[in-house]
Amino acid sequence: MSLPDLLPIQPFTRPACGEAVLPGSKSLTNRALLFAALCEEPVSLTGALFSDDTRLMGAALQTLGFEVALDERAGTMRVAGQREAFPGGEHTLFVGLAGTAARFLTALCAAAPRGTYRIDGVPQMRTRPMKALIDALRSLGADIRCLGEEGFFPLEIRAHGLRGGAVSIDASASSQLLSALLMVAPRAGGPIEVRLVSQVRWTFVEMTRRLMAEFGVSTHMDRATQVFRVEPGRYRSTGTYVIEPDATAASYFQALPVVVGGQLAYPGLRAPGAGLQGDSAFIDVLARATQRSAGTAIEEDFHEISDTFLTLAAIAPLLSGPTRITGIAHTRKQETDRIAGMVNELRKLGQDVIEEEGAMTITPRPLKAGVAIETYHDHRFAMSFGILACHDLLGNGQPWLSIINPGCCAKTFPHFFELLESLHAKSSAS
């Protein structure tokens, strides 16, 4: 589906119905690709996400000498040729704006036995936090050189493997920093003890540890002291690994019936606590936000599920009372400053918004029509406000809200607006 630079959204005039078939989890696809590369035998992934981020990850693995076969029609990815990977020489990896791929590939290259690797992305990627991971890998013997500002991309890694030992890491900026370190730890020359010296989003760390276990490597964690211990070992091929549907992507379509009425089915989506994704808890947050008494304020801590806070914030103008969202300070350093961006766009829509360093409070006011939402090259702005725009504000089914650069959804959900359009058509015909 080719998208224009400015996309007016057609509101729903009837309740939503049908199935929202979701893409595979980005977090699980990228982790599974890394584990597949660290196995010794071929691994096939089914239900995988095909998006800008995962394609960048797959292309980087090919550059590193792995055999990567992608079949988008079948939804499968296959990684093989692990014994021939890292042949030596100089290689350049491009990570775009894919923070997950950037951090995982940095750790993978640092753990490689040989070769020189230059890693860079788009200019915006050069502002995303990397220093904590770089410092931790250096303390384990990695030769990592920052070619620009210290602690940021672009990087040059002269690989000779990692040694064991004790290391501390501050992963407050992103749990991916800790996950990247844990995932390559079994490749080190001895046991690694990682001490976490900050808060972290535990849901994503637990996702990493549970997925490591599914690929045959266990980690010992002392939650009280925040110390992890990983012994040297090898990941084992599972033959075929099934990727869960993306719980973060589900949040948009879980919010759609709140905006337009009706109900949807989400084939394959795991219930909260049943799968590996912490963001599945969003459905419970949504229920609390929508089932409160009229005019009552609600406060929700999104620290563990912060990728979904934009979904709730975008539909807050339609809720029955003030919505306070906390625990999101770290989102100022993601694809964009997500707090500042959300505050800007909601105020353009006429909303009363109070901004804090790590929180925001939205008090509903009458929505303004004729607004174009800036997405800041951030897919989650496009999708969140795409759902709000389905509200029939004018009462005649005519668009009142447009999305600038809707194509940025290609980062994690390339067919988002195509799916939204198909649900609109189904609801209109019902």
Tally of helical segments = 12
Number of strands: 19
For the biggest sheet, the summary is:
4 strands, mixed
Label the overall shape. Answer: globular
Between the first and last Cα atoms, what is the distance in angstroms? 24 Å
**Rg, alpha carbons:** 22 Å
CATH superfamily of the largest domain: Enolpyruvate transferase domain
Assign the CATH architecture of the largest domain.
Alpha-beta prism
| Strand neighbour order, sheet with most strands | 3-4-2-13
Average residue-wise pLDDT: 96
Topology:
Blueprint: E1 6-8, H1 26-38, E2 43-46, H2 52-63, E3 67-71, E4 76-80, E5 90-94, H3 99-110, E6 116-120, H4 131-139, E7 143-146, E8 155-158, E9 165-169, H5 175-184, E10 192-196, H6 202-214, E11 220-222, E12 227-230, E13 240-242, H7 247-260, H8 282-291, E14 298-301, H9 309-315, E15 323-326, H10 338-348, E16 352-355, E17 360-363, E18 371-373, H11 379-388, E19 401-404, H12 416-429
Parallel strand pairs: 2-13, 5-6, 9-10, 14-15, 18-19
Antiparallel strand pairs: 1-19, 2-4, 3-4, 6-8, 7-8, 10-12, 11-12, 15-17, 16-17
Structural description of this entry:
The strands form 5 sheets. This protein has a 4-stranded mixed sheet with strand order 3-4-2-13, with helices on one face. The protein has a 4-stranded mixed sheet with strand order 5-6-8-7. The chain has a 4-stranded mixed sheet with strand order 9-10-12-11. The mean pLDDT is 96. It starts with 5 loop residues before the first strand and ends with a helix. Helix 1 runs parallel beside helix 2 (52-63) and helix 1 packs parallel to helix 3 (99-110). By secondary structure, the chain is of the alpha/beta class. The protein contains 12 helices and 19 strands. It has 2 domains: 6-23 and 244-429, Enolpyruvate transferase domain (UDP-n-acetylglucosamine1-carboxyvinyl-transferase, Chain), CATH 3.65.10; 26-242, UDP-n-acetylglucosamine1-carboxyvinyl-transferase, Chain (Alpha-beta prism).
